[in-house]
Amino acid sequence: MRELPENKLHANVVKTWKLTGMLSSAILALFGIVPVLIIVIVVKISPLWLLIPVAVVVLLWLITVTWVPRFRYARYRYQVHDAYIDILEGIIFVKRTVIPLVRVQYTDSSQGPFLRAYKLAQVDINTAGGSITIPGLSLEDADLLRDKIAELAAIAKEEL
Amino acid sequence: MGIDKRGFEIGVEQKVAKTYIIINILRSLYKSIFPMIILLVTIVSSVTSMIFDAELDATIEPNENVITALASVSGSMLKLAIVLGIVSIYIIILVVYSLKSYQKMSYIMYDTQIVFKKGIVIKNEKRVPYNKINSVNLSAKLTDRIFSLMEVSINTAGGSSGSDVVIPGLNQQVAEAMKNDLMRRKAGVDDSSTSENISDVHSNAYSDVHADLPFQAGITPISTATSDVAHETMYGTSYGAAQGSAPQNPTYDMSFADVAFAGMFNGRFFLVIGIALGFCFQFFDDFGVYEFIGSHSDVITDNVAKFGTVVLVIGTIVVLLLIWIASIAHYILMYYGFKVTKQEDIIEVDRGLLSRKVESTAIDRIQSVVITQGPIRKLLKRVGVSVQISGSMDSSADNSSSSGAKDYSGIGDTTIHPFLKKSDVSKFLEDMIPDYSAYADEQRLKPLPKISKMRSIRRHVLFTAVPIAIILQVIAFLSTSVWHWGWPISSTTVHVIALVINIVWIAYMWFIGSLAYKGRLWAIDRATIVARKGAVVRKLIICKKNKIQHADLKQNIFQKKKNLSTILVKTASISQDRLDVYDLSYEDGLAYLEWVRPKS
Fold first, then answer.
1. With contacts defined as CB-CB under 8 Å, which chain B residues touch A71?
2. Do B550 and A102 touch (CB under 8 A)?
3. For residue B547, what is the nearest residue in chain A, using CA coordinates?
């Protein structure tokens, strides 16, 4: 159990995460910067403390767009064994997940617009306890992995 | 039975009881009780105003005002007519609607699934394959009990397969037979080793039951050529016949004293005590303040104020007592005649005074067992036992009622005994769910590493006490120096009082944190994981390895420094009482993952 899972995600997934980060931080920026603009333009005052929300937004932008995707990619590893799936993820909170294949109910692969732009796909592994996602794989890898997990899950037998 | 010419499964369409129409009308009336009251008030007021106007107009100026008086009378008459018209149209619509919805409501029990149809405008058809059934519950509301009807709710595993099916308005015997039938068919379909032979027997028995039911429901049907004693047993117990010959099913019940006791000390008790104590403090505090002001003011007003306060306090205490008594009464109504029975592979809970409830849970759908003990139960050496079932929440459960009746079980939980003797737990589990019986003993559990005690305390103090302390101190500061609230005491005293409250609060949370650490015990056996948690109310959660859907080991940067980790146990249950263990050693966490990992 101490050895890490072997496989990494497709390198392009970092780019899609950056795009997602930009989008989500743009929404956040609306809440941070629009009030500031309103104060400056409508109320016509520009005290120095107004720089604080702007700085926070810029900092969050930097973190979500540059560092988070890179660290996330560096950490993320997965491996499908004969009887279980092993996933390692997280930046500050590192999480190791074991999914026994006996418990897998079905798998599916899907693409959002960003993943599609980079010809990537994600694989969802569904158990009765919830769904676990392997986020960014090349299309062929995603198809292979999805089918492989489904097949292994079909032949997996309960150990007693 | 079987398949017809077109390849469809054959099944007989069954209707619900006709009295359901009346119940439906009654319930709709009850739901619209407030608009009805308003309408009635309008009627009454318009009638009285009509009479009053006529009298008034008749006494003064009879000659000139005849026309206006007549006009006002006819105006009131018009109002009355409109209101009566609306009411009668509403009632007609209600009756027609209830009749129609009764006509459209039916269910069919096929070989492999049950289909329930309803809906006048939007047709609604729900299908549940027998093998997807998790539990079948019977319940009867007060209106149902008048006509001895019951509601059957069929719970399935949650997620994609959707919500539950609730078939209302069945005669009590029909409902009970249906429940037994559903559970039996579920067992029959589930069993992979049995073949058509058995399903033949099932369908025979089934058709027998249904042929007999409307006329002589109380009689044990004779299932043809069945060697399976279990089926006989099931019918035997549920109909109360053949009790001598059938093997005794383990049964536990609660005496009235137990129900009353459990009701007295449910969640509401502490709430009432807390509020009462708060008011007592307020009371003494008020006296102090009045005495302080009293030196300047009139003695009489002072006494009046004192008297007012006394009345207020006594009134509040009486109201609280009434709330408490009401909650006890409610609990007794819910749990009166509590009886839990194990039948083959089903646990059946039967309870309730005015509205009866029968909950049947398939043992193989149990995800984990929770044994709960709060301070009062600890004193009385009792525990509450509940089970977490997979998937969807019990739709017929009293989730809507905020009363204390469900205090020891969350969503997705079924209480199988709310007030069991601690010494009986092992035997109880042995009788009910044998797989779990060996793990009720807390002696076998081990504590967390010593380092995590400080982390537990810090979690409690930092997240609950410190933010409130800061807010309180800021308010104390602002109220004295900026807002000028006009305290009768000096601002330094205000600050000191705030500080004292904060210190006590932080010390209390510190204490709770260390209790929470002491409460945490856990152990992994060959096929079972057990953990206890809770600072004041302790919950022992037992989970089987083959019910774990996936396992997580988490570690944040603070835990990494101290070589600690958190394990998450994810089952198919959506209950909030999760068997997650925080701050165990990293090695133990890895061992947990290793334990869950199937060996190929």
1. none
2. no
3. A103
| Whole-number average pLDDT of chain B | 76
Place of tokens 């294949």: A101
Indicate which of A3, A96, A160 best probes the interface with B, i.e. most B CBs within 10 Å of its own CB: A96
Q: What are the distances in angstroms from CA B190 to CA B186, B359, B416?
A: 6, 20, 24
Secondary structure of B169-207 in the HEC alphabet?
EEEHHHHHHHHHHHHHHHHHHHCCCCCHHHHHHHHHHHH
**Chain A residues close to B546, C-beta within 8 Å:** 158
- The separation between CA B3 and the C-alpha centre of its own chain, rounded to angstroms, equals 41
Partner B contacted by A157 (CB < 8 A): no
Q: Taking a C-beta distance cutoff of 8 angstroms, is the pair A51, A36 a contact?
A: no
Is the CB of B587 inside 8 Å of chain A's CB atoms? no
For chain B, the distance separating the N- and C-terminal CA atoms, rounded to the nearest angstrom, is: 44
CATH fold of the domain at A79-155? PH-domain like (2.30.29)
pLDDT digits (tens, 9 = 90+) for B92-121: 998 998 898 898 899 988 888 888 888 888
Mutate to test the interface with A, among B543, B549, B566 (most CBs of A within 10 A): B549
Q: Look at residues B93, B95, B80, B91 and name the one whose alpha carbon lies nearest to residue B40.
A: B80
A132/B contact by beta carbon, under 8 A: yes
Average pLDDT over residues B201-207: 39
The per-residue pLDDT for B406 is: 37
Q: Quote the CA–CA distance of B405 and B155 in Å, as a whole number.
A: 21
Residue B287 · residue B302 · CB < 8 Å: no
The residue ranges of chain A whose pLDDT is under 50 are 160
